[in-house]
Amino acid sequence: MGEQSTSSAERAASFGPFRLLPTQQLLLEGDNPIRLGSRALEILIVLVERAGELVSKSELMARVWPNTVVEENNLRVNVAALRRTLGDGQPGRRYLTTIPGRGYRFVAPVEFLKPDKPQVRSSAGVERTHNLPAPLTRTLGRVDAISALLTELPGRRLITIVGAGGIGKTTVALSVAEALIAAYEHGIRFVDLAPLRDSHLLPSAVASALGLAIHSDNEVQGLITYLQDKRMLLVLDSCEHVIETAAVLAERILNGAPGVHVVATSREPLHVKGERVHRLSPLELPTKSSERTASEVLAFPSVQLFVERAAATLDGFELDDADAPVVAEICRKLEGMPLAIELAATRIDAFGLRELSVLLDDRIRLLKYGRRTALPRHQTLTAALDWSHEFLPKQERVLLRRLSVFCSAFTLVSARALGAAAEFDVVEGLENLVAKSLVSADVMGAVVQYRLLATTRAYAMQKLIESGEFEEYVRRHAEHHRDVFERTEAEWEARPIAELLNDYGGRIDDVRSALNWAYSPGGDAAIGAALTAAAVPLWMHLSLLDECRNRVERALAALSPGANQDARAEMKLHAGLGTSLIYTRGSMGYEVGAAWTRTFDIAESLNDTEYQLRALWGLWSLEIGSGQFRASLALAQRFYGLATRRGDANDQLVGDRLIGTSQHYLGDLTCARRHIERVLTDYVASDDRSHIFRFQLDLRVTARVFLARILWLQGFPDQAIRTAHSAVEEAREPNHVISLCYALAMSACLIASWVGELAAAEHYVGMLLDYSTKYALADWHACGRCHQGLLAIKRGDLSTGLPLLRAGFGELRHAMRYNMFLGALGAALGEAGRVSEGLVAIDEAIDHSEGTEERWAIAELLREKGELVLLQSAPEAESVAEDHFRRALDFARRQGTLSWELRAAKSLARLLRDQGRFADALACLQPVYDRFTEGFHTADLVAARALIEALASSEAR
């Protein structure tokens, strides 16, 4: 490229009403940013750099897709999207020409801004998060409707745009949302309901659009909880087929989330209190007159739309005065229906304007004669579809009806898999269907995504049924998605989750459709079982846990017992069931154990090490959650041995983490620390974090959680709080919410409270409550309430703290968190003067520790019981309490829990002091204090130092 071109690439370019800023990757129309796919934008930059020159297809593809082999179809689709965005072909708008077989030329005059000329800056303001699809065409003739809606929206929290199919409801809704991107603090979310066939899945669709993981049976309440403090706009598109559920959901959102506004599109109103209905009319039409000029008819948006789409289809098309009456008549015949006009305009290359008008007239007359009871708009739309379909080449008709089996977006690869046939080229056919507006193409991502509009899809599906191919192609559709998800199983472990959800998250409706067919009377349950097993990661990552469990249970019920060909699918299904049950029904219970046991048995029979490891992890989680720590250690050691034989270093470290966790609870802190530190020392860093997918928690985060606890227990409070903080920060980096809540509840909140950093504890407790509420994590929310109660008690507010602690404790479902709070509850009851209740709680905690061998906190429980005994003021209370304190000291010394030892020594020293035995008290406490090497500012050590000084002073007197 020459010096001039290079210089051009670094400067802004001006053409027509547009400004192109290459270095900022920005296209402006006036001062308004235009959203354009990155590939289309790069094509525009190249063509503008070389304005007036022919740029070959090979040059463009090399520039836009460097080091990538792509089909020419990608280039053509992106050029078509670019033309639509620029309005190429409209009067005064002529930018690109196609040189058949060679390439493209930018033909508009271009001015490159001089260095001293200020560049236009975007006035978009602060960018807000949104998921709005890129507009595929300019919005024409809807200025009044859009302005009215923008005026009404601040005062009306629910607006429903109502109109017939094909009238442009979605286009208007998106235009309104685009204009409001900067107006909503927490963004805008577009929810496409068209693919939804089960209205019960509507809350899941909204949650997915929000990027929200709801680990709860009550998805609607989870949505309300998340939205209640948000300022956000929700666009619910195509509500008519789930109208009742959409109405109920919209009403609940409006009642529970006062800052949320809703724009819905539907063929009928939602009939919700406070709803403002905006009925959309057809595009304005020119009056009937044969003497109108081109400039006169182009004042009408219906004609503007026809001309723009015709120009995109037929290079060089321009409307002249001679043709103006013909185009006006075509638009009148189609009664201003946008979809019908677009479909008709795409056939201009085949018939020309006049023959097009004649053919269209005949078709409409015939259809109206046969459908007198139909609404005129529906007649027109059906007429346009029928007519457009009839004049397609046979191969394109075949491809269109076969593509109707896709419920949502699909790629060229998928189109080939279903539409392939020896008699035609799918690539060329798909490109032609896009050009004729029968298929839409979204070029915003790295891979072009295709979609049939809901109306077109329903029409094409009817044609598929009439052709007799329906059963064959719904089977192919199911087999294709089974194959897709079976091939991507390894990807769920290796690629970043955000990328995977971008590539595969949108296929959930196709998975549902395929499964509905598979378990129908004419379906194939074997395909359904295989697809269900392969799609488990998709449900898990979309947080559709209830749906996952229900689908898996349905698949398992359909499997033939003992059939060898189903063994691997059955194994994966049981694994999926075990995982989904953990989150929907807790980690304890017979169902969870049965699912993981069956997984292991099948995996062992198949010699499948991967699923043996997953099953052992599941069974270990079950035993840990049930408080069977000795059994959990045995399973952890089996996991470690199997991982060692497999030779995977990080899997072996997962085994170390499991062993270390079990040993921690059993009170063997020295061995626990050795295993945990090995995880952090030997971990092989990678970007995929596959262990999160396979074993649910981030390995390094959980290792830091238990290392922090061990460090504090062993008398290193400064290192403990730093390690706990790093666990939280490491979990926040990939935004893995389960790991983050784990780090907060099991380490950061606890240790901050232990060391007396109450401000830090308050911060961590707030985070835990926020995240557990947002993502409907009930058990972690119960932990948060317990920590909140403990914090209030630490600050002396027993009247607030005790009810919070009791309420949270009553909601806990996990035994490994049980004693963590039960002992604290007993101590708090004693402080409140309810000593007998406190002793009951402490005795329950001690009995639980003995029964489960949970020994890590036994020293503290014995000390707390001694303190409660003293509060009774009963005969021999001091003797009994001293015995508890000394037993606590003995346990702490044997376990190496220096922090528990210090607390026990303080309690004993205070008792001895009160008995006047100052030397004995000092001899008990001073040596323990002297063994600390850090943390002298922490609460326990500050209190111990004060007591030592007081004892020394008393002894001296």
What does the model show?
The chain is of the alpha/beta class and 957 residues long. Among the domains are: 3-112, Winged helix-like DNA-binding domain superfamily/Winged helix DNA-binding domain (Arc Repressor Mutant, subunit A), CATH 1.10.10; 143-279, P-loop containing nucleotide triphosphate hydrolases (Rossmann fold); 294-374; 394-451, Winged helix-like DNA-binding domain superfamily/Winged helix DNA-binding domain (Arc Repressor Mutant, subunit A, Orthogonal Bundle). A hairpin with a 3-residue loop joins strand 6 (96-99) and strand 7 (103-106). The termini are far apart. Residues 1-7, 115-127 and 365-379 have low confidence and may be disordered.
List the helices and strands and how they pair.
Layout: H1 3-9, E1 13-15, E2 18-21, E3 26-29, E4 32-34, H2 38-49, E5 54-56, H3 57-64, H4 72-86, E6 96-99, E7 103-106, E8 111-112, H5 143-152, E9 158-162, H6 169-179, E10 188-192, H7 202-210, H8 219-227, E11 232-237, H9 243-256, E12 260-266, E13 275-279, H10 294-297, H11 301-313, H12 324-333, H13 338-345, H14 348-370, H15 376-390, H16 394-403, H17 412-419, H18 426-435, E14 440-442, E15 449-451, H19 454-467, H20 470-487, H21 489-494, H22 497-504, H23 508-518, H24 525-541, H25 545-558, H26 567-585, H27 590-605, H28 609-626, H29 629-646, H30 649-666, H31 669-682, H32 690-695, H33 699-713, H34 717-732, H35 737-755, H36 758-774, H37 778-794, H38 798-811, H39 818-831, H40 835-852, H41 858-872, H42 877-895, H43 898-914, H44 918-930, H45 939-956
Helix pairs in contact: 2-4, 4-18, 5-6, 8-9, 11-13, 12-14, 13-15, 14-15, 16-18, 16-19, 20-23, 20-24, 23-24, 24-25, 24-26, 25-26, 26-27, 26-28, 27-28, 28-29, 29-30, 30-31, 30-33, 31-33, 33-34, 33-35, 34-35, 35-36, 35-37, 36-37, 37-38, 37-39, 38-39, 39-40, 39-41, 40-41, 41-42, 41-43, 42-43, 43-44, ...
